[in-house]
Amino acid sequence: MDQTHTRALEALQPFIHLANSTSTSSPRLIANLISNATSNPQTYFFAELLENPTIQSLRSPDTPAEYQGYLTLLEIFSWGTWEEYQSTPNLPALSPEQTLKLRLLSLLTLSVTIKHLTYENLMTALSITNPAELESLVTAAIYSSLLTGRLSPASSPPTVNVTSVAPLRDVKPQSLSRMISVLADWETRCGDVISDIEAEIANIKENAEKQREKEKARKSVFEKAIEECSSEKGGENVPSSRMARKMARFGTGAGGIGNKREFSSDDHDDDGYFENGSYGAVDPGLEGRMDIDEGTGSSRGARQVKRVLGRKT
């Protein structure tokens, strides 16, 4: 599509140069220039040529009637359709090349403005009576890169499915105000959407900040509660800690059996009894001493330890 656009601009330049270099405003010469420009198979833009002062000189009241219609014809080639040409009186007859060109340009406009491009709609708009002629026209447009699509003659009704159209039509000056209005409305809607998005983002950030502050306060309360609990129960945990150290030193606890060792004099509670994790009967004859029986064990010399605890003397 871009190459077609470039070729169309390049094809029009010789005609613009010829209009600029013309020293005389001969209506016949200008009419001949318009006919050649609209017959060229590569020209699809005509607005720049239409705005040329030499071409605009045909609007003069002194222009012969037989040439006055050429300026209107060039306007139809710029932004009009085949139907407009058919409905406008006093226009010059078209050559076969001009007929094909105007129908191709009209097909581009119809592909944008008509939702369902049926054979019937296109044949009526382009004054074509034979479906094969319509198919030939659409095929020529596709091979010229004017549009992309496919023919569906077997569908009901037969249709032309157009997927894209080359931007090769000029804009009618009277439609500029409407286009500006449409673009202004579109800009307003875009601004409203952006404002809504920004408000939603601000709301999300605000909620996230509140959630962070809430979590921070909850964590602070939790840590303070832990500190207060540890401070209040700190004194009660001392005996348990001393007992745990004693059990670790004796090698007891959790049903474990300690190794043979001597008891020190401070390994007792305030009541004067030794501790081994349980309180059993004490043999009065064994006060102040500890007997250790070593029995036979495994082949590695494992020893079975029997400890008898008594009251110290």
UniProtKB/TrEMBL annotation:
Residues 194-225 form a coiled coil. InterPro entries: COPS7/eIF3m, PCI_dom. Residues 250-313 are annotated as: Disordered. The keyword Coiled coil applies. One of its GO terms (cellular component) is COP9 signalosome. Residues 1-165 form the PCI domain. It comes from Aspergillus sclerotialis. It comes from the Eukaryota. PROSITE patterns: PCI. Pfam families: CSN7_HB_subdom (PF22061), PCI (PF01399). Residues 303-313 have a biased composition (Basic residues). Belongs to the CSN7/EIF3M family. CSN7 subfamily. This is Cop9 signalosome. Keywords: Coiled coil, Signalosome. The keyword Glycoprotein does not apply.
